[in-house]
Write a structure and sequence with these properties.
Pfam families: Zn_clus. GO terms for molecular function: DNA binding; DNA-binding transcription factor activity, RNA polymerase II-specific; zinc ion binding. This protein has about 575 residues and is mainly α. The chain has helices spanning about 10-15, 30-35, 55, 60-70, 75-80, 80-95, 105-115, 120-140, 145-160, 170-185, 195-205, 215-235, 240-250, 260-285, 295-315, 350-370, 395-415, 450, 460-485, 490-495, 500-515, 525-535, 545-555; strands spanning about 325, 340-345. Helix 10 packs parallel to helix 12 (about 215-235) and helix 16 (about 350-370) packs antiparallel against helix 17 (about 395-415).
């Protein structure tokens, strides 16, 4: 008998040790016998990457100097791209990701990446992103990441000449990887941002069809493209692009009933459209009081969407619900908290989905509260007493705004812990870094069972590693979003409803994130000023510099997922 290699049959037929006809999506053998076909396992479903951080953490100064001197011929230098990619795929694309909270890109990146040849656009694009991210941890300039990016763009252009490549997951993933590189480069001030890859991904939407062989992969990638467009529209206060709008209105956005993120995007698309309509109307007419819609009509529509968001929060899985911890009791007092409280989540991704939900509600509250201003909601000063007290729900809206901003502030300790120094590879083994976690509580404590159950949690070690790697990135966007929300346009009016000192606390935590990620202030000596700020509190950047930095970060985050 000839051995033709590993069977490609479905899981059910393999377990029964019978021949499978390999029909898709379900084999006819199982269908004929009335059995439940478990589908087909992917080749790389259980792929894991080896932790090679010891190569960096234990490297002495002298050996590093020798390596830099002989960079061209050093074996370790030649292996650097593989090391950076494995670091990126393990700590950013692998840990903390699940299909239950999938947005669609990182969850499929590893298997798609492993199916490619070394000269493919996806391999080159991921290598560029990985090199850039690892350079942040190693505090070097990584000049070759831009070269890899350029090579990936050239390779992608050549690949796109073949129309058959447009529908392949690897092609779409390469475009999204290039946009990720652009986002990072813009945030760090390497060059101005561009939407070319974001728009390119939108143009590939019709080809990411669910009737392809890689049905689930295409659906997830399509969802990520739409998710990024919805988030971008909310950030830029514009309507959805026509391509995305037709998909949102004419197609099914929901991947699975068990995926709350997809349901939130369906609501977010409507929030983005309402916000764009509101802003355009106010700009065109000078104030909403002179627009075609009455202020009360705007409030009714915004309240209707807010009710949908509240309904969403009641339907999420129990293990998604944030666990509230108190400083000094459940959380070490060295971890900065807001009003002595913090909220922890099963993963960074789930925490960020909650913050996206809060930002969407804040955008609706901005419409509601600004419609109360008299006589013109677009001519604000620092006083909240301009608001009419005639509406019985006004106090409720103000209270809701305070609760939402409080919740974002309470999530900051979960992402940052007590960290105060720039990223370093030694952080993964630094026992001095403390992170609030349900792992630190006794099992009998209320709420811990769900957080540590099979559905909601990973091991203690992986939980810690993924927060150390991803935490600052995930909280950067919500904090910069709050700062711009309270500073642009009528932001001073909204800021008047914040608790005393809360705006300053948000600024302080945002500066802390920029220090961890080594994001420079505008100017040639910007990053030095941040280090000085960390060492000498008397030399803080001015409020205008902080707000400008937040806006610059927002430019890079325009086409990123999340708040």
């Amino acid at each position: 008998m000839v051995n033709r290699g590993r069977s490609k049959g479905c899981v059910t037929c393999k377990q029964r040790r019978v021949k499978c006809d390999q029909a898709k999506p379900k084999c006819r053998t199982c269908h004929r016998l009335g059995l439940q076909c478990e589908g087909y396992q992917t080749r790389y479903s259980n792929l894991k990457f080896k932790d090679q951080n010891y190569k960096f953490c234990n490297e002495s100064t002298s050996s590093r100097a020798t390596r830099d001197k002989n960079q061209v011929s050093s074996p370790r230098a030649l292996a650097e791209p593989d090391t950076s990619v494995s670091f990126f795929l393990q700590y950013y694309a692998g840990m903390g990701r699940s299909l239950g909270s999938a947005r669609g890109f990182f969850e499929v990146l590893i298997p798609v990446y492993c199916s490619q040849t070394q000269d493919s656009p996806l391999i080159l694009a991921v290598s560029a992103v990985a090199s850039k991210i690892l350079s942040l941890w190693r505090h070097d300039r990584c000049q070759d990441s831009r070269e890899k990016y350029t090579q990936a763009v050239k390779c992608l252009r050549s690949t796109l000449k073949d129309h058959n490549e447009w529908e392949k997951p690897a092609t779409i993933s390469a475009v999204l990887s290039l946009q990720l590189y652009e986002n990072i480069a813009t945030i760090f001030g390497l060059h101005s941002g561009t939407s070319i890859h974001h728009n390119g991904a939108l143009s590939l939407l019709p080809f990411a069809s669910s009737d392809k062989a890689d049905c689930v992969t295409h659906i997830l990638l399509r969802r990520f493209i739409l998710h990024s467009e919805i988030c971008s529209a909310m950030r830029q206060e514009r309507p959805l692009q026509d391509t995305a709008y037709s998909w949102v209105k004419g197609k099914d956005l929901i991947v699975s009933a068990d995926n709350p993120s997809s349901r939130l995007d369906a609501i977010g698309a409507t929030v983005a459209e309402l916000q764009a309509s509101y802003m355009q109307s106010a700009t065109r007419h000078g104030s909403i009081t002179s627009s075609q819609k009455a202020p009360r009509d705007w409030r009714i529509e915004a309240k209707r969407l807010d009710d949908r968001l509240l309904a969403w929060s009641r339907k999420v899985p129990d293990h998604w619900q944030p666990l509230k911890l108190r400083s000094g009791q459940d959380v070490d007092s060295s971890i900065p908290t807001y009003r002595s409280l913090c909220e922890v989540y099963p993963t960074c991704q789930i925490g960020t989905i909650w913050n996206l939900w809060r930002v969407q509600r804040l955008l609706l509250l901005r419409i509601i509260l600004s419609s109360y201003a008299i006589p013109d909601p677009w001519k604000f000063d620092d006083r909240a007493d301009e608001v009419s007290a005639s509406d019985e729900h006004l106090g409720e809206y103000v209270h809701t705004l305070q609760e939402l901003v409080d919740s974002v502030c309470h999530s900051v300790p979960f992402y940052l812990g007590n960290r105060s120094n720039p990223l370093n590879l030694a952080d993964f083994g630094d026992t001095g870094i403390l992170l609030p976690s349900s792992h630190s509580l006794a099992v009998e404590d209320e709420g811990v069972f769900d957080m540590q159950g099979k559905k909601g949690q990973t091991s203690r070690e992986d939980y810690r590693r993924h927060i150390i790697a991803q935490g600052p990135w995930h909280i950067m966007s919500p904090l910069s979003r709050l700062l711009t929300l309270f500073s642009e346009g009528h932001g001073q009016y909204l800021a008047s409803f914040l608790r005393p000192g809360q705006h300053e606390w948000i600024r302080e935590q945002f500066l802390r994130v920029t220090l961890l990620l080594r994001i420079p202030l505008p100017g040639t000596s910007g990053i030095k000023r941040l280090y000085t700020f960390a060492k000498s509190p008397g030399q803080e950047p001015t409020d205008s510099e902080i707000e400008y930095l937040a806006k610059e970060v927002r430019k890079g985050a325009i086409f990123m997922s999340g708040p």
